[in-house]
Structure formats: structure tokens, C-alpha cells
Design goal:
The chain is an alpha+beta fold. The protein is 22% helix and 31% strand. It has four helices and eight strands; from the N terminus they run H-E-E-E-E-H-E-H-H-E-E-E. The strands form three sheets. Strands 2-1-5-8 form a four-stranded antiparallel β-sheet. Strands 3-4 form a two-stranded antiparallel sheet. Strands 6-7 form a two-stranded antiparallel sheet. The longest helix is centred in the C-terminal third of the chain and has 9 residues. It is globular. 29% of the residues are buried.
Length: 123
């Protein structure tokens, strides 16, 4: 965890722009098998005095099955230089191959969750 700086949830920049304009990768894993999907919907806020990040994943998506068996997910935000990689992750399914390798998104598994090296913010 030496490569990361922990911040409080309210120190993250504007969630509306983060999710709606910049997109995010929702990362999930089932053991060693990691996958991520691009999303531009969801919310970050407070629910019953706890910080939450809520996403919606269609049951047909490969990530849905991974999220169902996972205790944790990652929500990663990148700069414009990764826009093409995020577009790729939104178009292709991890069911058909390792799309993270195909678009050169490097990650580490932290607490059984994929955390992307080039993300500027990960929740």
C-alpha cells in the first residue's frame, strides 16, 4: 500500500463529474480472475452516516457474476490518457478474454480486489 495515499471520502473531487463525465472502471475478481467494466452511472455519498459508492450492473454483464461472489469492488478513475482503454473495457466482455491485458491496464490485487496502477483515484 506504499504507492497509495489514503484520503477521506469527502476529500474526493466532485462525484457527479467523476462518474458522469470521466467514467469509472468497476473492478471485481473471483480469486485470481480479475475483470473490470466501464461505467458512467452510479453515485457516491453518505447512507446512514457511512460513505457509500453505489453502482448498477446488468445481470448479463460478466462483471455482475464476479461482483455477486465478491465482498468488495473497486471504483477507479483515470485521466484522459486512458479514455481509449476505458472505451475498450466498455465495448468488450471479459468473458471472451483478458481485456485488461488487451488494453494494457496494469493492476495489483489488494484485499482480493483489482486496483489499477494508473488510476488517479480508487474507491
Amino acid at each position: 500500500m506504499k504507492d497509495f495515499i489514503e484520503i477521506l471520502p469527502n476529500e474526493a473531487s466532485d462525484a457527479i463529474d467523476l462518474i458522469g463525465k470521466e467514467w469509472m472502471l468497476i473492478g471485481a475478481a473471483d480469486g485470481d480472475r480479475a475483470n473490470a467494466m466501464t461505467a458512467s452511472w452510479g453515485t457516491v455519498g453518505t447512507l446512514w452516516n457511512k460513505p457509500v459508492c453505489i453502482c448498477f450492473i446488468r445481470p448479463q454483464r460478466h462483471t455482475f457474476g464476479l461482483a455477486e461472489v465478491s465482498d468488495r469492488l473497486s471504483f477507479s478513475f483515470f485521466g484522459d490518457e486512458k479514455r481509449e482503454a476505458l472505451a475498450y473495457c466498455g465495448r468488450y466482455s471479459g468473458r471472451d478474454g483478458d481485456k485488461l491485458a488487451a488494453c494494457e491496464l496494469n493492476y495489483k490485487m489488494i484485499d482480493s480486489v483489482p486496483v489499477f496502477d494508473d488510476a488517479r483515484l480508487t474507491l
